[in-house]
Amino acid sequence: MIWLTVSLLNLEKKEPPVQAPSPEESEGTGVVHNTIVGYTTDITKVVANARQHVVSVTGLTEEREVIASGVIYAVNGDDVWILSSSEVLREDAAYVVRFDNGITVDAELKGSDPLTDIAMFLTHPDFEVRAIELGTSASLSQGEYAVVLGARNLHTQSGQTGFGIISLPGMFHRHSESGEKDWITETILTDIPMIEETSGGPLINLSGQMIGMMSASFSSNFRGVSMAVGISDLQLTAEQLRRTSEVSRGYLGVVTRDIRDLELYQKSAMNILLDTIAGLVVTEVAEGSPAQEAGIQPNDVLLSADEKEIVSEELFRQYLYEKNPGDSIMLSVQRQGVISSVTAELR
Question: Model pTM?
């Protein structure tokens, strides 16, 4: 009681409090004093550093308002580009973005792409903000740690945070059932439960880099886990929206894997020459796709496109984004050691 009284008096005088007795000093009193003054991990540091890049995006209509998380994607002078989920979009809606400092700014919808669940907004805040650092989704590994961030709640000023592992990188979601356009979107499965408030928010690695965007629509068929759109697709789509407000790309209809990721026994099982060290192995061909019409089959190895060597899966997807529906692409294909050329007309 005496120690507590002295500590309170020192607190009122703004003097350092008297330290609690050490376990040795309190021996025989029946009381053990263990005071935790703070606990910081790599994860708490990542969350604290990344929080400034996360925003909320609100779509306002006469009937209601729809809110999603978002992220500061790019800053160019007075132009601040916000990436969010297309779920926030409503016909005839007005949009506002609330930054992490609590200030709300009007936003202009510059374009969207439902196939990758992206909505891109342009804002002009009169204060300084910084864009989040972008990582890569092509080199993710199963079991790698990841963090999900949602925007701060207007009333509690706290934002949702999730932590878990990458359960399955390099997944692909097919959109052929949409009836509008065909595309195969790169997605990332995590064991982090999907929380509605985090849709549109960033999935980040422990270096603080954004590696994906959380999507409630992609996660709707899963329970207890969540899906994110990989940053490779996000960045390619976002750059087109920034330049032209539209997205155009050539659909081939294959799911591939970098052959450098295969073990020797996997190559052997697929009848791939063991000394093949470059190219993409086809793991799936979409039904009715240009690839199927051109005769491409699972376990084929794509070596080049239009006589340009295929260096990586990421660069090949970028090449398809540079094409338009109706363009033709000539592929060099290796099947069971035999190399041939096929031509596919992209959609």
Answer: 0.82
